[in-house]
Amino acid sequence: MPAGGRPADTGVDAVADAVAGAVADAVVVGAGHNGLVAACHLARAGLTVEVVERDEVLGGAVSTVERWPGVRVDRGSSAHVIVRHSGVVEELDLAAHGLRYVDCDPWGFAPAPVPGDPGPDGRPLVFSVDLDATCASIAAACGEDDAAAYRRFVGVWGPRSRAVVDSFGRQPTPLGLVRAFWPLGAPSGDAPRTPGGDLAVDFLGSGDALLDRWFTSERLKAALAWFGAQSGPPMSEPGTAAMVAWVALLHDTPPGHPVGGSGGLTEALRRRLESDGGRVTLGDGAARLLVEDGRVAGVETESGRRIAAPVVVAACHVLATRDLAGAHAPPALAAAAPPVGNGFGLVLRCLTDALPAYPGVDPAVSAQGLQLLCTDRAQLAAAHGDWLAGRLPREPVPLAMSFSASDDTLAPPGQHVVTVWGQWYPYDLADGGDWDALADAEAARLVAAVDRFAPGFADSVQQVYVQTPLLLERELSLLRGNVMHVEMGLASMFAFRPTPALSGYRVPGLEGLYLAGASTHPGGGVSGNSGRTAARAVLADRRPLARARSRAGRALRAVRSR
Question: Amine oxidase domain spans which residues (predicted)?
Fold first, then answer.
């Protein structure tokens, strides 16, 4: 007998033990937004579904907690971008289950250079849904030529970015990619067909190269590059052009922040799931997969509870899924070694008595969206270079968000929640530094980086909660602090994500096990695409699934009769 005195699970006995605990058509491992989206789609199709989650808080990296008395603070994401274009919210009718978004409009703000910085002083850049207003801001800050170029850029890259949205919402098969991108080359008006080579150069090129072809102002290029870099790779890497060009879609639908915090999305998903008969269990995550005759038979939770199910959707990190499978992991999963990287960023959750105040700018303008505090791409290149070397950034580059300006449910009157994101902070430091010891000093440096553009911000800060790469791993199970699970470079996207063998959401060699979450296509960020596509894969396999359930039922009846 194995340690603990419990007989090893074999064949029919394993199924009987599992059924004695609970029975479901599908178990979803992980109550992040992708896991909940998958569960909702399965429950809507009539399956009995249970979601099991180790954390006591619903939502994973899309969650909100009361960090200080009366103050609601996001634990992970704050601005929701991709999900507002994916159709997931509308398909599941989440508005009927309490989800309400506040539009971030203006959705982007880049301050004028600080006096004394290289280059002329100027006016801030303000990006809003109104393309005319955005172009007027660019004209005032950067010149008429760049404003006209930006208008053309949005016209060209709007349809291209919508094709990216389409590709994100389906399995990354060659046929699916052709269906998404082939129409881009079609003749339009008096314009002839765009050669495929030209499209390939644009899509496979770097974000920096794209920006250099279109614009002359470094300030404009820096703001757009900092927006594009939020996916992780520097804009000097091949294949990052589309990450910059996503801005074209924000003139149709801007980023949004759920009322009450980012967790408003996952709370609405839970209510939707429960309305269709599904269930979420918090504080008792999956400990291991149950396997019978080479296929999934359910899960055992950390408390020892067993849930029999012919389908398990693992909406956790792909390497956590490998651990759950243990000795049952087939070669494709056992050998998985996707690029996780050395950390991603550092987050400050600040309680302040005022919004960041940029000289000469109404806070009602600057506080609505992403405050892109970068005026030269050299700052981004230097921070990324330090990260590659395992060093702390010599010059932190901040992005600030302060949604309490438009959502009074987040903080009491006279107080605000300001999130400050600093990118490219290593998980493992080359000098062996201890993140627990470094957290406060690095927080102070990042606060000072914001204060440089918004004088007085540092004095307004009353409390700070510091999420180092190490704490992101501890708190949100983000391996090595990578909020995207797996790096978002070209070699780990689409049909390469998380590995070529696992890119189809099914796990070859272990029938009934499906993958979802940021480890899979289309990657990190709040979109729900992965959960929806995984659910579609499950439903497409329903006919053989029904046969498996019938086999499990016959086995159970045999055990009972015996």
Answer: 206-539
Name the residue range of residue 432's domain: 104-128+341-481
Answer yes or no: do 403 and 471 share one domain: yes
* 108 within domain boundaries: yes
Instruction: Please name the residue that has the structure tokens 């979803």.
Output: 28
Q: Which helix (H) or strand (E) holds 547?
A: helix 542-561
Residues 148 and 124 in one domain: no
The Cα 339–Cα 496 span in angstroms is: 11
**Tokens 């499950």, residue located:** 538
Do 123 and 138 lie in a common domain?
Answer: no
Cβ(420)–Cβ(399) below 8 Å? yes
Distances (CA, A) of 418 to 340, 407, 475: 28, 12, 20
- For residue 70, the domain's CATH number is 3.50.50.60
Helix H or strand E segment including 88: helix 88-91
Q: Number of folded domains in the chain?
A: 3
On whether both 361 and 475 belong to a single domain, the answer is: yes
Query: Distance (Å, rounded) from C-alpha 134 to C-alpha 220?
Result: 12
Q: What are phi and psi of 201, to 5 degrees?
A: -60, -45
> What is the spatial distance between Cα 284 and Cα 325, in angstroms, rounded to a whole number?
17
Which element (helix H / strand E) includes 42? helix 33-44
User: How far apart, in whole angstroms, are the C-alpha atoms of residue 397 and residue 377?
Assistant: 10
The single residue listed with the structure tokens 């979450």 is 517
For the record, the structure tokens of 136 come out as: 């007027």
Residue 11 lies in a domain: no
Whether 498 is in a domain gets the answer yes
User: Could you state, in chain order, the average pLDDT of each consecutive group of 10 residues for the chain (562 residues)?
Assistant: 37 44 95 98 98 98 98 98 98 98 98 69 91 97 97 96 95 87 74 78 94 97 98 96 97 98 98 98 98 97 98 98 98 98 97 96 94 97 98 98 97 98 98 98 98 98 98 98 97 97 98 98 97 98 63 52 52
Residues 6+ apart with CB under 8 A from 411: 70, 71, 72, 351, 404, 417
| Rounded-to-integer distance, Cα 258 and Cα 101, Å | 4
CATH code of the domain in which 469 resides = 3.90.660
Is 212 among the domain residues? yes
Model confidence, pTM: 0.92
Supply φ then ψ for residue 550, to 5 degrees.
-65, -40
Phi first, then psi, for residue 28 (nearest 5°) are: -110, 125
323 & 377 share domain: no
